[in-house]
Amino acid sequence: MAAAITRLVRPKSSIARWARRCLSASAASGANSHTPPYNNSSAINLKPQLSRKGQEENGNIHWVFLGCPGVGKGTYASRLSTLIGVPHIATGDLVREELASSGPLSAQLPEIVNQGKLVSDEIIISLLSKRLAAGKAKGESGFILDGFPRTIRQAEILEGVTDIDLVINLKLREDVLLEKCLGRRICSQCGGNFNLASIDIKGENGSPGIIMAPLLPPAHCMSKLITRSDDTEAVVKERLRLYNEKSQPVEEFYRSRGKLLEFDLPGGIPESWPKLLQALNLDDYDDKHSIAA
């Protein structure tokens, strides 16, 4: 399986090598100057290099987003993809696309997905290989991965074929995750993603409160909203249980390599997006290349 991906990954750019040096140097010095919501053992500073590099160089970065189902990996990975200029590859989307197709794996997936089980490494690697091949044909080189790797075996396969520059681990308390997942809706016509959950949890015992406003659809989408078949309470709880069981070794895998940035989401997109950019030292870069907040 690894060989299939190896042929699709291009050589690393200077930005990737520079980011790794930054992570290694700051980890060695024990730097940990950030306060919540981000907690990383490495002080990351990508901004100066990004501001000097063109789209071609930026396209070579290799980043990964980790986090529980429903935490918002896709939202933030997509925004960074637009900001930096690299493709966002979400393995969850690859699975759903395969489900909707008549491809060779489509018959195996419905039972796995609808019961909240993890899709096997073999299937995920196959789908990812196909996506990378399509990207290579279009001239893509780098990526921001979302939803992969989820297991140590997947992390080891990925490590064997490319150097990951940065792993961003998004964190959110489980009761909020459950409410968010149950509030997710998709417009059956335009495919837009929305969330009806209105979360307002007061802080207690020294823990901060969290407010997340609903992400409501425009009026013309309201009557066309549908719920994902796997967004039921039982299935979401099972997904969270499985993820937590598998995630600790993967987090430690990247933490031990000085590549893990742990980011506690302080609220919804308006509160979290600027703080995530600050944690990545990309806030000035965002000012110059603005995208919709």
From TrEMBL:
EC annotation? 2.7.4.3
Per UniProt, what is one Pfam family of this protein? ADK
Q: Which family does it belong to?
A: Belongs to the adenylate kinase family.
Its Gene Ontology molecular function terms? AMP kinase activity; ATP binding
What is the protein name given in its UniProt record? adenylate kinase
Record field: catalytic activity = AMP + ATP = 2 ADP
Source organism per UniProt: Acacia crassicarpa (northern wattle)
Q: What PANTHER family is this protein classified in?
A: NUCLEOTIDE KINASE (PTHR23359)
Subunit info?
Monomer.
Keyword Transferase assigned: yes
Under NCBIfam families, the record lists: adk (TIGR01351)
Q: Which UniProt keywords apply?
A: Kinase, Nucleotide-binding, Transferase
User: What is the superkingdom listed in this entry's lineage?
Assistant: Eukaryota
Task: Say which enzyme class the record assigns.
Answer: transferase
